[in-house]
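= Tokenised fold =
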Amino acid sequence: MNNSMSGLLLDAGELKERIRGWLREDVGPGDITSLSVLPADHRSRAVVHVKQPGVVAGIPAAELVFREVDPQLQVRRAAQDGERVAAGAVLLEVEGATRSILTGERLALNLLQRLSGIATATRAYVDLVADIDPPPRIVDTRKTTPGLRMLEKYAVRVGGGHNHRYGLFDAVLLKDNHIKAAGGVAEAIRAARENVPHTVRIEAEVESLEEALAAAEAGADIIMLDNMTPAAMKTAVERLRSRAGRSLVIEASGGVSLATVRAIAETGVDVISVGALTHSMQALDISLDLYGKKGDRA
């Protein structure tokens, strides 16, 4: 897996600016606890470690947090993004001014815990459909945390998934309210086709077989089968394939869970979008301890 932040839709300079803003939010004029308890020359070694198994994501971002707090901190990576780790595994070692380590601790852990939780959840979905030939893509949605979309979508890729559109600007996705306002799925597709470049693909969200067939007839490039049962999806896939073949991309969406993703994948869809990857993920339990993990000797 890629262990850098390259390939993101936010460059390194912008990521640094966001981290600086998050640090200002948390630290304000100063970490009053550390400043009042610890002398400036107090030094420590800290380890960042996981307390449960999972897939790691966000190590470069966490490292950048510590470097933004104090460029003199020595940070060593002990794991890489995309790595599946066991409980107890050390991810980072940080050495330097104790004040600086403790000032950066929470932001670094917040990012690591959330991104690793997303990567771990994504890998679980991907693994459940990996043996299907061909396996459908597991993709995210725009149901992300404001300010964290770039990092959360990165974590999905680290976990083996793929990204749906990044925002409203990079793809046409005709959802139910667009279709209602336009007067129907065919009308919405025709309007979009007239107003976007030929290089832009058009996706239509549908909720029935009839609507799916109408969208295909109107020239949609991608059809999203939303909140349909696996049986209804399978019928829709068969009918759409008989009409448009493999050139039409068929996506499944709506209420996808670990309990249902396998049945959905077996309908023959190409893509399964899972909002829960980012809106309902469980953070991976990760801690920072001075002088080694709790219970270890210094």
Summary: DSSP finds eleven helices and twelve strands in the chain.
